[in-house]
Amino acid sequence: MTAATDTSRPSTERTGFPCSREGCERPRAEKATHCSFLCKAIECELARIQRLSEAVGPSPVVAELWSHATTVGDSWSEVLRLHDHLAQEAEAVGISAEQWSAIRDGG
């Protein structure tokens, strides 16, 4: 399924700027590198674990750390996907994009 036909997430084709985190296909702002603070934090943590792994070498602790960090990334991707789906549901029941932003952001 392509981004143009997949309605479960916003298309990066609209902005031309995909998030830099591997596995995240959400659009980002033109001057940003990631779609969210958490995507940037997850990518930084994975890079940190990679450096530590290279320094220490393979170990059960490194494997477990990597596993948990990638699980966080996968979970965050799912949270973002569900947020996008919920926004589509809100639009379907007549909530405007402006109203949705105010509801979502608490303002």
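That was protein one. Protein two is written in the same sequence-then-structure order:
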Amino acid sequence: MDEIERLYREDRLNRLAPHDRRMLRAQVLTAQVMRLADPYLCTHEGGNHRCFYDELMKLFWNGGFDILTDADRAEAGLPIRGRNGWTVDELRELERYRLEAMMRPLTVTVPKT
């Protein structure tokens, strides 16, 4: 049954317009943040959880926040990321930059008095 549900969800998501997919992802991201923040939100004076949720949703939606999953990366033909969030090419470029910085000669300037 789990496999059937997963296939149904994937099929439903693939049929969504990009606009709808963005809204869905903003809602999921907001729900995850709310789940984390809920124990820390004050409940006195009526507890304004709904206003906080609405503000987060506006921030994520208007700001264009999105989560790019490994499946999205594979679908777009992008290289996979390692456990630290870097691709092999990005690590190679970062290492090249660090080596160049280490090999650059130090220049010392002495002010004239």
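Residues 27 and 57 are 7 Å apart (CA to CA). Keep this in mind for the problem set.
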